[in-house]
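Fill in residues.
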């Protein structure tokens, strides 16, 4: 039902295939490597006895779906983190009189070194009120299974609505911000100030912007030695003002209020909702080989 209604967007086929594959894998009907083989018709074979609609059936604006088996697996395996994220679009469904705005919102659970879909929802808007209703249903779902979410880590993007909803609705959970989303925001601002283009002409700016992007994955004690908060060029340089303006933005947005959400040094897993740390796991064996043994890690990074 969620997939049928949420049919808009450039990547609709990819999203539908991946969610369908997640659901079918949850039911034990397919392997993880068969994502590309999933077609729309395959959605019809999904079992319905295991699926819970935990929203009001009469509410056509909000649809929350969860898998009973996935909740049981999450509790049995031990919840390491819940990853929440959404994708907003319009649904050009022929049966509807006009295009309706929906956000497809998913909750994934991390346990025992893997992650799987726990809950999928259609939301009519991106507001704290809507997110709160969803989180209340999620908490009630686990209560029905006599399981508390107290102390469980929940990772979200930096949208004000979801931040407020998490802190108001499930304050017993440990809230963290997704560093991948923070990196995307920073990349957009670097482009906004023209620093990505400037980096092509000035290597010193390119090197500095690379350090800025890496800063989200570094402990704060390295900020000074890496000169992340220092303008990399002299005041007479044509890009001095752009660099200074970006640093002011970076200090205001990322060095002040989000601090409790980004303090993740020594947390080794699930720091981002796309599990980008898998790249680090790929990198470390290469660094430990004789080719790099004894060399300074800075040029390698």
């Amino acid at each position: 039902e969620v997939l049928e209604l949420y049919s808009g967007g450039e990547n609709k086929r990819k999203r539908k295939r991946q969610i369908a594959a997640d659901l079918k894998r949850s039911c034990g009907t397919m392997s993880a490597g068969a994502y590309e083989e999933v077609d729309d018709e395959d959605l019809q074979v999904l079992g319905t006895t295991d699926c819970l609609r935990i929203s009001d059936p009469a509410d056509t604006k909000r649809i929350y779906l969860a898998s009973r088996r996935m909740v049981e697996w999450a509790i049995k395996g031990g919840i390491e983190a819940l990853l929440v994220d959404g994708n907003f679009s319009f649904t050009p469904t022929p049966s509807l009189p006009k295009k309706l705005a929906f956000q497809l919102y998913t909750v994934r659970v991390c346990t025992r070194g893997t992650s799987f879909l726990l809950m999928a929802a259609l939301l009519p808007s991106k507001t704290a009120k809507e997110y709160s209703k969803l989180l209340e249903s999620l908490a009630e779902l686990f209560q029905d299974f006599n399981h508390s979410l107290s102390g469980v880590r929940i990772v979200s993007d930096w949208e004000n609505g979801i931040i407020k909803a998490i802190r108001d609705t499930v304050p017993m959970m440990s809230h963290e911000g997704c560093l991948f989303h923070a990196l995307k925001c920073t990349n957009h601002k670097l482009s906004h100030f023209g620093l990505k283009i400037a980096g092509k002409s000035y290597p010193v700016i390119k090197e500095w912007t690379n350090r800025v992007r890496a800063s989200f994955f570094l402990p704060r004690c390295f900020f000074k030695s890496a000169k992340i908060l220092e303008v990399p060029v002299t005041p007479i340089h044509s890009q001095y003002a752009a660099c200074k303006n970006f640093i002011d933005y970076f200090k205001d947005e990322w060095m002040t209020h989000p601090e409790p959400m980004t303090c993740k040094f020594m947390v080794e897993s699930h720091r981002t909702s796309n599990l980008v740390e898998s790249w680090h796991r790929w990198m470390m064996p290469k660094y430990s080989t004789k080719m790099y043994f004894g060399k300074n890690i800075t040029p390698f990074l």
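DSSP finds twelve helices and seven strands in the chain.
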